[in-house]
Specification:
By secondary structure, the chain is an all-alpha fold. The chain has one domain: Non-ribosomal Peptide Synthetase Peptidyl Carrier Protein, Chain A (Orthogonal Bundle). Helix content is 58%, strand content 0%. Helix 1 crosses helix 2 and helix 1 packs across helix 4.
Length: 85
């Protein structure tokens, strides 16, 4: 799975795993996942997201520094999954 299909699946996993009250179609590929102006997720959400990404995509994120770079947006997550597959 790659491209638009992968990005849509990531959004679906985020909504499902984090119980977001948003339609996956409303989430853009580049919206920041954390902080104001983005989806506004917090550190607890980050942990759940890491677990969900590993469960659904086999993506292992080793360190918190790596996580900061990978968990910026749907786009950065998708690129990491594409790189590791």
């Amino acid at each position: 799975m790659q491209g638009d299909e992968l990005r849509q699946r990531i959004k679906e996993v985020m909504v499902e795993e984090l119980m977001l009250e948003q339609d996956p179609l409303e989430i853009t590929n580049t919206v920041p996942i954390f902080g104001a102006g983005g989806l506004g997720l917090d550190s607890v959400d980050a942990l759940q997201l890491v677990v969900g990404l590993e469960k659904h995509f086999g993506l292992k994120i080793g360190t918190s520094d790596a996580a900061k770079g990978i968990l910026e947006s749907v786009e950065t997550i998708a690129r990491e999954i594409e790189k590791s597959s």
